[in-house]
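Throughout our pipeline, every protein is held as a single compact record rather than as scattered files. This encoding replaces a full spatial description with a residue-level series of whole-number codes. The remainder of this section carries one protein's record, kept here as part of the documentation.
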Amino acid sequence: MARPTRDVEYEQMLLCRHALVRHRRVWYEDGLERSAYVLLSRIGVQGPMSISELSDAFGLDASTLNRQTRAAMRSGLVDRIPDPGGGMARKFRLTDRGARLLDEERARGVEGLDRVTAAWSDDDIAGFAACLRRFNTDIERLGGRPWPRP
């Protein structure tokens, strides 16, 4: 008998599809592009980060992060500051605008999830969140890139 992971894979694909459709609808209008949302989320929870730290966190090369951070700077979402710890590298931190747009994007996401789960009990939602957290932390453990959580 096949493990139910085949079902999980399929549902994960659909979940990603649903999330992309939602983001595509708000890109460049009143929401953040997906990569900016993830970048701002990481800086928001961890604090100022250098290109090297972002590269390690995301498993992406520095040139990719340079493009993403330049775009975020042009949009007024992040700015560069001296390393608060006294290091040589400059770090990126959220601007007030970046923090506000991140909060607004997250609120839209929560609002959408509230609509989807309107008929769910709080216990069902909490159980689903716990399973997603476990799933994500196991992926992070295998990849060696833990994601800080607020």
Observations:
- The two ends are 40 Å apart (CA to CA).
